[in-house]
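pinned: reference chain
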Amino acid sequence: MNLFEPFTIPYMQRALVEVLVLGALAGAVGVLVVLRRLAFVGDALTHTVFPGVVIAHLLSRSLLLGALAFGVLTAVLLTAVGRHRRVGDDAALAILLTSFFSLGVVLISRTRGFTADLTVFLFGRVLAVDRTDLVQTLTVAAVAAIVLAALHKELVLRAFDPEATAAMGYRTGTLDLALNLLIALVVVAAVEAVGTVLVIALIVVPAAAARLLADRVGAMTALACLLGAAGGWLGLAVSYEASVDHGVRLAAGATIVVVLVGLFLLAAAVAPLRRRRAAAGGHP
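pinned: its structure tokens
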């Protein structure tokens, strides 16, 4: 299989840039999600932006702006409601996920041809990404990268030792809100390319694989970014090869997720060997 030939075509080049940026960004944020065990938060955010996407579609406005509005709203509500002792994080997540996603389905069901629209919103259209979509994705990714770089030390400390974080004077609620907003930005950046359903795989799978293979957060983050970008590239290449050369139609977004899961399984197979080698090296 030729991993480079498909990307001589302009639309494949745009798709490649999109998935490389998304894979790297989602991998970096995903490490914090995995360390904090917040995969369900990411999953909830992928569903709660759905009504924003639908409303923007119905008003013929930018899907990214609609997703951004509901992503920020979800992050704020989740942080506020989840801190209420009588509610808790899990209940807040369930309430927001079900109510917002149901609102999106109700709205889209009022339109003609809603099944086709629903499929695009849920699973994306990475091969149809244009220059405007790329600019929007790069802008959102740049904002997320700046926030992540500025707060990375504090967010890592919050993940490993929340008591020490509070004792050092950091506002844990503000840090929680910042992380929720980062997750929301990743979801917003990816929603047009891979849809609201598949984006959770971009966030969690590369980071989970990286955690199996690395001990330090810096190495884990670099590896998660690399795996996310590599999974996007390989997934596009496999989808193109199967669809064009072999007549087997494979959805590009879903193929990317399958490749990412394959990389995770490979990491899971290699991880025990790595631990045994490290243990052997530690004993004379």
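why pinned: The CA atoms of residues 43 and 71 lie 12 Å apart. The two ends are 45 Å apart (CA to CA).
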